[in-house]
Design goal:
The structure holds two protein chains of two kinds. Chain A is mainly α. Chain A has one domain: Up-down Bundle (Sodium/glucose cotransporter). Chain A is 78% helix and 0% strand. Chain A contains 19 helices and no strands. In chain A, helix 1 crosses helix 8, helix 3 crosses helix 8 and helix 7 packs across helix 8. By secondary structure, chain B is mostly helical. The radius of gyration of chain B is 14 Å and the shape is rod-shaped. The chains are: A mainly alpha, B mainly alpha. Chains A and B meet through helix 5, helix 9 and helix 12 of A and helix 1 of B.
Amino acid sequence: MELSVSIVLFLALLLLIGVFVSRKIKNEEDWFVAGRNLGVVPLVGTYFATIISTVSVVGYMGYYYIHGWGGWWNWAGTGLTSFIAALWFARRLRTFGQITLPDLLEARYGKAQSILGGVVILVAMVFFTCAQLAGSAAVVTTAIPNIDRTTAIIVIGAIFILFTALGGMEAVAWTDTFCSAVILIGVWILMYVVVGEAGGVAQIHRKLAEIKPTALDPFAGGAISFGVAMSWFFTWGLGNFGAPQFSTRIYAAKDPETAAKSQAYVAVTFIFIYLPLMLIALAGIILVPGIEKADTVAPTLIGKYMSPWTGGLIMAGVLGAAISTADSVLLLAGTTFVRDILQKVSSRQYSHAALLKIARVTTLVIGIIAILSTINMTTGVMWIQANMVGIMGSMLSIVVLAAFAWKRANSQGGMAAMIVGLLTAVIWEYLKRPMGWFPILPSLLTGLVALVVVSLITPPPPKKIIDQFFGEGSVK
Amino acid sequence: MEVIPGSLLVFWGLFAFLCLLPVSVLFFRKKR
């Protein structure tokens, strides 16, 4: 009962924030990038909430339970992303100042590259929305057993589609910030109780040294190989730059300095979620040893040590993690369709009001498609869902980074890197990930080789492009 | 904490570095 009430209250609050914020939206730029007016708080909040999905809370807690401290490799790359973004990338991308990642591809490499990027992003984002929707439905049906999966998908889907379509980036940023707060409060309460139960941080480590010393080894006593650790590190560290749901948040910052600053704060906020998740998992090893299914670690601990109300708060946090990732990718699907496909393919001039309307309707339609395909999930759809985001990152990360990093990178090299990166990822997945590497790792290598070789055997980019990206007005 | 191995301390250092360096760099850049 308490669980149902907390979850319904939470969803109602989200909708309220979304509707309240949407009154400010006047034109398509307000909707796409929140009028480029976001300060540090909503930027950090939305970035954090978009990165932290249900997988991070439930899945990672289980992963840490099994591997101990070595499990932390899984967010090392996320830290590397904000590290590079704060010190180098964010200021440059915000100074460039368009709306989408394909805008960057068009200006730096050409229109064909931009449309190819747009199409792959759109497909990836639709499927990614489905994955998050399926995750949220799983949370709700666990918390409220007498609701069926289809109803849960429709209700949750309707709520976030509605506030995303109405309020665009501004609504997404503020609801995400609210979700971040709920996730953090929930996880910290759980940590406080569970770590206390296990006798405190020092006691936990003393005990682990006795009963499970591999939990204190950075490579989990060999369970995490050096290759896998580096896979985590570089896959996400560089791959996130090809994931537009992260990089485009930088466009919404009110200026380049705010963009860089918010990325630096994001790096710090990660400690506030991954440290408690780790301590909860380590305490779990001592309190409830022998859990074999990783995903059940979080529900087991919550069920055993939380009161119904605090349990409800944590469930709301987990649901918030899913919704805040889903709204961001759905927003991006709408933005990509209008901005990168419709506007680039069609020669018609649209008014601001018309564009806003098209963006909202597209978001609704994509959202409804996502709801329907989540309800009728087949194994084929699940395969695409699981792999599409990685494939998109494999195609885009090298060209996005090279846009600002390497003057000589040109249109032909960009196209070659995108196609080779995409094909490598698809083939690698098809071969069932040789050596356990994520597909993005070989893609980064082959994409980089393709970029360098093809760029060098074809003419350098025109002076106009070099001036725009490396000349007077650009960030040095 | 006598039970913490040196390798784990190095590992923690990596995360502290990743998390805290950007903030400190931006902080000092502003001061200048």
